[in-house]
Amino acid sequence: MGNCWGPPVDDVGLSSFNPGIHDTSIPGVTVRRPPSPVSIPGYGGGGGSTGRRGDRPREAPDSGTGGEKGGSGPAPATAAAAVEGVDGRLKVFTLEELRSATRNFRPDSVLGEGGFGKVFKGWVEQKTYAPSRPGVGIPVAVKKSNPDSSQGLQEWQAEVRFLGKFSHPNLVKLLGYCWDNRQFLLVYEYMKNRSLEHQLFSKGVEPLTWNLRLQIAIGAARGLAFLHNSEKSVIYRDFKTSNILLDSDFNAKLSDFGLAKLGPTDGRSHITTQVLGTYGYAAPEYIATGHLYIKSDVYGFGVVLLELLTGLPALDQNRPSGSHSLVDWAKPSLSEKRKLKKIVDPRLEGRYPSKAVVLVAELILRCLESDRRKRPSMQEVLYALEKINLTKEKLREAGPRPTHHVDHGHRSQMINRPSGSGSRGYIHHNW
């Protein structure tokens, strides 16, 4: 839920519905069509990568054999139980303080909206987090639940439990929380450059340079490696571009922990859980069996790395038949240099070290291995990316800047979305 506005993924079997995606039948997975489009940032509230979502159903109790049951456990009976053991440095806000910080939750301060509720921009004092007025102190993002939402306590609990216990430069920072009767609120740091999804796919956004793309990939890898290597390893379960938020310097921070699970214990290799996640990013073994491994996250990282390389979304029903899935379409070209050059984002204008592109393609293939045992760990992925980042090569002079129209061989599409299509991350928020 990271910079979370609303629930994390459209946890409807598999989430993140793109326009044009209809009810889909996958063995063992229940998916429903979300009822309406929304705009929500990666603070855990919006639709997935393109943007439609509805209220996500509550996750059924984990079950199955051979694996550890889900680590997050059942929802607490009270909000107070949910915050036991969290970082005491988190501020406990009152509802009145957050009303003041957001100017009584004014409509013009809305940053996004999802099944959980709305996210508002507010202002607080830098040191005390006391409510301030616009332009004074620091901006924050305030996520406020809908009293009628069935997922309010559950989503709020997941965010507080994970972000209240873990702190890392590449995880979005939770500043505090509030509960008042049936109102559940979360206060996060404000991320100026919204989400990676916004930077890659939104209309009118300056294309990310090769160096920035690598910087973002390395930051996201550090965050994921930290979770995997924590004392109680955490499986993120919803790694995607809309959940990678970017600060003013384009440093990546993971957001939206609503689907996160504590990893397997007692020597077990996986946990068994209801299949939830996002189309195009979920690992094949998880979709097929419900078995969730640490390296299931590595598959999702490989998909995001492929999006960074090509400038195309993981799933797009508007592309021609046979190329809806970016992985299926691009994977055959990753191992051949001649074909590889044709799928690199043309907005880079050739300004990248060709050797580095080959190395990134090789890393993507390793992350996307169908056999999860052959995938590298996130620590190995991080090491590989840091090594690739040292690859330097004289870049040729760039020609005229291309438009957002991208022609990748047999495909032609606009890499932008209508302003009405929803997504998590700060994609549709005029900050």
From TrEMBL:
Residues 52-61, 397-410 have a biased composition (Basic and acidic residues). GO terms for cellular component: plasma membrane. CDD domains: STKc_IRAK (cd14066). Its EC number is 2.7.11.1. The keyword RNA-binding does not apply. It catalyses: L-seryl-[protein] + ATP = O-phospho-L-seryl-[protein] + ADP + H(+); L-threonyl-[protein] + ATP = O-phospho-L-threonyl-[protein] + ADP + H(+). Its main location: membrane. It comes from Trapa incisa. This is non-specific serine/threonine protein kinase. Belongs to the protein kinase superfamily. One of its GO terms (molecular function) is ATP binding. Keywords: ATP-binding, Cell membrane, Kinase, Membrane, Nucleotide-binding, Serine/threonine-protein kinase, Transferase. The keyword ATP-binding applies. It comes from the Eukaryota. InterPro entries: Kinase-like_dom_sf (IPR011009), Plant_Ser_Thr_Prot_Kinase (IPR050823), Prot_kinase_dom (IPR000719), Protein_kinase_ATP_BS (IPR017441), Ser-Thr/Tyr_kinase_cat_dom (IPR001245), Ser/Thr_kinase_AS (IPR008271).
